[in-house]
Amino acid sequence: MFTTFAFVPQVIKIVKTKNTEAISLQTCLLQVIGVFLWTIHGIIQSDMAILGTNAITLCLTTTILVCKIGSIKREDAEQQVSNCLEEE
């Protein structure tokens, strides 16, 4: 159960600060994929313990991943604006 809620402090910090600089996109993506597969396994096995804990973890890790991708897109947009202003 502790591993399920281990991502809560990270999600809270990211949502509050909007800062995902220290988060590795690759690690986060692999975590989401792994937890998604465990969730599917829980469904196939009809194991509510596996399904429930991994579904919660999937929501938390997906939130982190979405924030990370959004941060990357914002950084790219800011860089493009900066490049345009430098050209003028």
UniProtKB/TrEMBL annotation:
Domain of life: Bacteria
Membrane-spanning ranges: 23-44, 50-67
The UniProt record lists the keyword Transmembrane helix: yes
Keyword terms: Membrane, Transmembrane, Transmembrane helix
Main location: membrane
SMART domains, sorted: CTNS
Record's keyword annotation contains Membrane: yes
Location relative to the cell: Membrane
A Pfam cross-reference name: PQ-loop
Topological category with respect to the lipid bilayer: Multi-pass membrane protein
Name by which UniProt lists this protein: SemiSWEET transporter
Species of origin: Enterococcus hulanensis
Phylogenetic classification of the source organism: Bacteria, Bacillati, Bacillota, Bacilli, Lactobacillales
